[in-house]
Amino acid sequence: MPSLRGRLFKFLLQNRHLLQFQWRKKIIDWSQYEAILNFRKEVEAGAERFGKVPKNIVISPVNIDGLYAEWLIPEGVAKDKIMLYFHGGGYVCGSCKSHRSITSKFVTGSQTGALLFDYRLAPEHPYPAGLEDALKAYRWLLDGGIEPSSIVFVGDSGGGGLLLGTLLALRDQDTPLPAAAVACSPVTDLKCAGESHRTKAKLCLSPEGMALAIARHYAGDKGYEIPYASPLYAELHGLPPLLIYVGEDEILRDDSTQFAAKAKAEGVDVTLRVGEGMFHCYPATAPLFPEATEAMKEICTFIRRMLKIESNLKD
């Protein structure tokens, strides 16, 4: 059973409309471009209010052939071992700014630096724009002399789906793959065919109708079974070790469970964690309640192990 603090935090998130003195959740027409723009503003504003980065992490802007990115490097840590972070936002929102604070948690816990990048967003830039930008960021790291074995991919939500699609594209292009990857609540099925999209709809924090609308914005008329956009429909052999976290009470649960089962059947080293009673991307809320803290601890330990980094942190 989830901890009391975990259940309380989830209850507050599920009923956050009440804190705004709204008796019912707002129904949003996600097919409307204006709704996407408003959502972006809300995400960025939230990051402005609550997204704090520890003072010991140095943020350095980078221009990767027109692609904005940022180094997040703890003081005294070299750039020879790096996580490439794929921010979430359902392919329609999110940025370096919105995800600095979240990325810094992985940076602090794993004692390694990160490169966070702004990939192009839908609907202005549908698939494959984001994938092209992700490939550009990874190859920039390789061209800079960082070995593939010294890179781990980390991503959440839509960023987790983009991460998996990027791994597949790199594999198919015979580009050396990173050492490992961590995906939190990744989007793997733009068809939204998993049962959890229906059975968990009332419990999920995701606004009603958002998943299918975002799929349309991202994939457009290209189809929802394109392997690099919907990794669940790809051949999954040859991928590096994967650690996948997902909440039991979110619509994307089956995106993770089905992907993990298929990848394992095709010989991939996959570790799947389904958080009992947990919600979308719950590890990113550490250290607010025990389940999130334990998840973040395991993820960071996994990153250190894959990159062969000795830890000076106390368990």
Automatic annotation (TrEMBL):
What is the top-level taxon of the source organism?
Answer: Bacteria
EC class: hydrolase
Q: Which SUPFAM superfamilies match?
A: alpha/beta-Hydrolases
EC number assigned by the record: 3.1.1.83
Instruction: List UniProt keywords, sorted A-Z.
Output: Hydrolase
The entry assigns this protein to a family as follows: Belongs to the 'GDXG' lipolytic enzyme family.
Listed name of the protein: Monoterpene epsilon-lactone hydrolase
